[in-house]
Specification:
- The chain is of the alpha/beta class and about 350 residues long.
- Helix content is about 45%, strand content about 15%.
- The protein folds into two domains: about 5-170, Spore Coat Polysaccharide Biosynthesis Protein SpsA, Chain A (Alpha-Beta Complex), CATH 3.90.550.10; about 175-354, Serine Threonine Protein Phosphatase 5, Tetratricopeptide repeat (Alpha Horseshoe), CATH 1.25.40.10.
- It has 14 helices and eleven strands.
- Helix 8 (about 225-245) runs antiparallel to helix 9 and helix 10 packs antiparallel against helix 11 (about 280-295).
- The protein is globular and about 70 Å long.
- The model has no long low-confidence stretch (mean pLDDT about 95).
């Protein structure tokens, strides 16, 4: 049977590391922990799972740290996780089955990343990442921040999911990444398109909306990027304009996304919201229906599932109420309730209908 090395880089992860390693230890033949300067109990926790704990001097470069971790692997395939990731039991069984089928013809395996969850624990923000790679191919990580693993060859797109466990609602954006980007700019470094995109994201997250918009425009002007990132850049730029209260520019940014692909559910819902604000409920309803009909699954890019599930149904409930069609209004409220049975709006609407 092929063997698997788990390679991780960590720093001060005592709150989440044990959960991560417990979730995946059964399928790993080797666990390599590269510590970049922990001052808590991270290494003590790691030592209960492995003796391959290696200190590494942090140089503000995630790719360098990950490549170093990969260089210490000795098994046939390398699996990577972050400390706040885990693999649920059902997905672990899928990974065990996949391990049995691994062979030398497989170069990499991508897995679904459940990055965000609703209040019931259901994933609502997902995308794909290459998670398992053949060691002998010596695939490399690229980019000091928001690094990516460049792979090629025979890539299997599995239905195995990795779950992100950190509470995103409580997170205040860290200054670590934006500081790395700003230091690179001070040194006169010319950003690649991917760097422009992720730096713009950091600026948006830190509420530097004007500067974020400039960098989204710089990124889109390169015309040399992954289409999914280009679409998300348009949506994110629209969010910047929304925060600035500039409705026309927000709409223009949304419309800009149509240069790259068909109307995504996120786009349709935001268009519906715009028409709802103007009390043009019939037009708004058409956009919400389009959101439900324009599902494009597993693009590999970021997908917020709320915009193709409960949210358009709840908005359609309002539209049809305002249009005087109580039967359709009630119908869409119940469909929203199938996804969110305890949602206060759904429950309030039910009381109103009664």
């Amino acid at each position: 049977m092929p063997t698997i090395s788990l390679c991780m880089i960590v720093k001060n992860e005592e709150e989440v590391l044990e959960q991560c390693l417990n979730s995946v230890k059964e399928v790993c033949d080797e666990i390599i922990i590269v510590d970049t300067g922990s001052t808590d109990k991270t290494k003590e926790i790691a030592s209960t799972f492995t003796n391959r704990i290696i200190d590494y001097k942090w140089i503000d470069d995630f790719s360098a740290a990950r490549n170093y971790a990969f260089s210490n692997a000795t098994m046939d395939f390398i699996l990577w996780l972050d400390a706040d990731d885990s693999i649920q039991k059902d997905d672990l069984e899928k990974l065990k089955a996949l391990k049995n089928d691994l062979n030398s013809t497989i170069d990499a395996v991508s897995m679904i990343y459940h990055y965000g969850f609703d209040e019931k624990g259901n994933p609502n923000f997902i995308f794909r990442r290459n998670r398992l790679v053949k060691r002998s191919n010596q695939f490399r990580w690229h980019g000091p921040v928001h690094e990516y693993l460049e792979v090629r060859g025979n890539i299997i797109h599995s239905d195995i999911a990795v779950s992100h466990n950190r509470d995103m609602k409580q997170n205040i954006p860290s200054r670590r990444n934006i500081t790395i980007y700003e230091n690179r700019l001070k040194k006169g470094e010319v950003f690649a398109p991917r760097d422009l995109y992720y730096y713009a994201n950091e600026l948006k997250d830190h509420q530097k909306y004007r500067k974020g918009i400039r960098y989204y425009d710089k990124f889109l002007a390169t015309k040399n990027a992954w289409v999914e990132d280009e679409i998300m850049a348009c949506f994110s730029k629209a969010e910047c304009y929304q925060a600035l209260g500039e409705k026309d520019n927000e709409m223009n940014s949304l419309l800009q996304s149509l240069k790259y692909d068909w109307p995504r559910p996120e786009f349709c819902c935001k268009m519906g919201n715009s028409f709802m604000e103007k009390r043009e409920f019939e037009t708004a309803a058409k956009w919400y229906h389009a959101a439900l009909e324009n599902k494009k699954t597993d693009t590999g890019g970021f997908q917020n599932l709320d915009y193709s599930t409960w949210y358009p149904h709840l908005q359609l409930c309002i539209c049809y109420w305002e249009l005087g069609d109580l039967e359709k209004s009630c119908e869409h409220n119940e469909k929203a309730g199938e996804y969110r049975p305890d949602d206060p709006s759904v429950l309030s609407n039910r009381t109103l209908f009664k």
